[in-house]
Amino acid sequence: MSRTKIVVIQMKELIYTAIFAGLGILLILLLVFMFFPSRNKDTSASADAQATPYNPGVYNSEIVLGDATLNLEVVVDADQIKSVSFVNLEESVTTMYPLIQPSLKGIEKELKRGTDIDKIQVSEKSKYTETLLIEGVKAALNKARTNPV
Hints:
By secondary structure, this protein is α+β, with helices and mostly antiparallel strands. Helices cover 51% and strands 17% of the residues. The chain is built from five helices and three strands; from the N terminus they run H-H-E-E-E-H-H-H. The chain has a three-stranded antiparallel β-sheet with strand order 1-2-3, covered by helices on one side. Strand 1 (57-65) and strand 2 (68-76) form a beta hairpin. Helix 4 (100-113) packs across helix 5 (127-144).
């Protein structure tokens, strides 16, 4: 015949075992979440970089036009271009190149509307001037980008 064995487990031991098992599982989960990178953090960081393409501030670039050097100033916000202008433009330059001011105003208007710098249409009558100004604006915007190319 078989004898029946009775095992007595005290309630105190069960409670201690359950608490330590729960703490062990919690510790393992904490270590896993701390040391394995989350996919959401990587996508949110790249989304932030795409959401704010520019570092806010004032950026300059130089344009050589004949014997004169023009300083082009671009003011940007975190997500848009605020203004494009010349710094200390001499009257002799505007006399020699009369299309420079209207061309810059047209480019500034397009950029404020949100048109991409590469998609701005240049007019036939001031093609050289506008191309030169666009290259200057691109140089200043490259300094302003959060991820320069």
